[in-house]
Each structure stands twice: as structure tokens, then as C-alpha cells.
Amino acid sequence: MKAYFTDLFTGAWSLIVGLKVTFKALISPVVTVQYPRVKNEVTPNYRGHIDLVKDAETGSHRCITCGSCMRECPSGCIVVDGEKREGVKGKALTVFTLDFTKCSLCGACVEVCPTQALDYSQEYELAGSAREDFYYDLLKRVEERE
Ligand code: SF4
Ligand code: SF4
């Protein structure tokens, strides 16, 4: 008989403890979002893959095709190329690609750039089923960006 009441009390007590946790969660502030329908703001310090900065004044990139980032990159994941154009000082940028499969996000390219033409993107939804999905045309990206 004693064992019966002990079991009854233990069961009731565990139910109360469980419900306490449930009610506490019910009245606590919601800290999650309904991703992907709702998305959180990304902190400005977030380091996504590198990206060409769009200059607010000119509406174009700031790259002068010096190639410093390409030479400095320890993983060899940047390819920069340009061409001489009539009436344009220096080389006009024609190719700027990033192989993100090899990038370690060390930031050397961002630091070495003399015109602050590179920054980290805020991209975090990066998924793909092939290596080529992570080869980015940064020149095309900056041209298409609003
Ligand atoms: S962050 Fe580092 S590894 Fe990535 S592209 Fe720049 S220099 Fe290369
Ligand atoms: S270091 Fe800067 S200016 Fe030079 S090629 Fe790279 S992004 Fe362009």
C-alpha cells in the first residue's frame, strides 16, 4: 500500500515539475524566428565571403585592378584581370572571381586592398551540391547589386 502511494506521489510530482517547465517557456519572451519566412538581422561584424564594395558616389566598384589581393591570397582563390581601354587611366576590371571552396576567410585580401574595394558579404544561406556552386563572379554580383 505504501509503495502504491509513493508511486502516486512521485508521478504527480514529476507531472508538476514538467508543467512548471512548460508554463515557464510559455510566458518567456520568444527568441526564435520562423525561418526561412522570417530572418534575423545579421550583425555588421559577420564575415561572409568577400565581395566587391559598391561605391555610393559612382555606383560602381572601387577596384583599380592592381592584383594585390590575388597575390596576397594564401589559398589562391582570387582571379583578377583587366584590360586597357581608350580614355581610361589604368586597367578596367574585366574579371574578378572567387573560389570560395578554398577561402579560409583570413581577410588578407580585404586588408591589402589600397582602395578599400573589398569587404565581407552578409551572405549566410550558402548551400550547393557541387563545387561550382561556390565559384563566385564578384564583378557580376557588384554590377547586379542595387
Ligand atoms: S579571405 Fe583570405 S583566403 Fe579568402 S580570398 Fe581573401 S585572402 Fe584569400
Ligand atoms: S587589391 Fe583591391 S584594387 Fe587591387 S585588385 Fe584587389 S580589389 Fe582590386
Quick overview:
The chain has 146 residues and is an alpha+beta fold. It contains 4 helices and 5 strands; from the N terminus they run H-E-H-E-E-H-E-E-H.
Provide a descriptive summary of the structure in words.
A three-stranded antiparallel beta sheet has the order 2-3-5. A two-stranded antiparallel sheet has the order 1-4. The protein has helices at residues 2-27, 68-72, 108-112, 138-144; strands at residues 50-52, 78-84, 91-99, 118-120, 135-137. Helices cover 29% and strands 17% of the residues. It has two domains: 1-31; 50-144, Alpha-Beta Plaits (2-Layer Sandwich), CATH 3.30.70. The protein has four helices and five strands. The mean pLDDT is 94. With 146 residues, it is an alpha+beta fold. Residues 63-69, 80, 112-113, 115, 117-118 line the site of one iron/sulfur cluster. NDH-1 is composed of 14 different subunits. Subunits NuoA, H, J, K, L, M, N constitute the membrane sector of the complex. GO terms for molecular function: 4 iron, 4 sulfur cluster binding; iron ion binding; NADH dehydrogenase (quinone) (non-electrogenic) activity; quinone binding. It comes from Desulfuromonas thiophila.
Which range best describes the helical content: under 10%, 10-25%, 25-40%, 40-55%, 55-70% or over 70%? 25-40%
- Report on the biggest sheet: 3 strands, antiparallel
Q: Span from first to last CA?
A: 76 Å
What small-molecule ligands were found?
iron/sulfur cluster
Please indicate the count of domains.
2
Q: What is the strand tally?
A: 5
Q: Which term fits the overall shape? A: elongated
